[in-house]
């Protein structure tokens, strides 16, 4: 049974990788031999696995960043809505306060009310003094 090689590393990748390694180690001008089929397939599989892991990890990071940004925007929208609602409520309370202040200014002062009550008592006592005794009894019984 023969296994087909699905992914082989290109010869250019092997050449660049080996040349870089040789220069790092201090060997210059070394001839690099091409890989055989089995080694190329193994290196290709390793490269494909690493690329897959890198792509999945990068995708997870990008998706998490987008999710975090969407959550942040939603929080900002909620805060803006709450702020607007509080500003509206403060505006309504300011209007209610102005209305109450106008009512207080229109109402007579407390001293004037007491003065009016004293005048009413005086008028009642004068009326009782002028009424004959028979009408005062009828008035007192009708009040009860």
Automatic annotation (TrEMBL):
Output the Gene Ontology cellular-component terms.
mitochondrion
Which purpose does this protein serve, as stated in its record?
Answer: May play some role in mitochondrial processes.
Q: Which GO terms describe its biological process?
A: regulation of lipid metabolic process
Protein family per UniProt: Belongs to the OPA3 family.
Region of interest called Disordered, as start-end residue ranges on this chain: 123-144
Q: Which Pfam family is an annotated match for this chain, by its short name?
A: OPA3
Supply the InterPro entries for this chain.
OPA3-like
Q: What is this protein called?
A: Optic atrophy 3 protein
Organism lineage string? Eukaryota, Metazoa, Chordata, Craniata, Vertebrata
Q: Which UniProt keywords apply?
A: Coiled coil
Which segments show compositional bias classed as Polar residues? Answer: 132-144
